[in-house]
Amino acid sequence: MSETQTVEEMSPEVNERIGKAPNPSKATLRRRxxxxxxxxxxxxxxxRILQLVTIAKFGKH
Length: 61
Description:
Number of strands: 0
Number of helices: 4
Largest sheet: none
Helix content: over 70%
């Protein structure tokens, strides 16, 4: 077995900060895992990228 350590094992301060971090609420987890909201977010992100690419290629009219 190798003697390498993970980053968490090398830095106890990081472990402590991660342990003190707040966990998301059940409502937040439900929103993050909702497939309809994920689809909407994905479509919205793609629309914004498409707008940026269109402006860069053809200019703003």
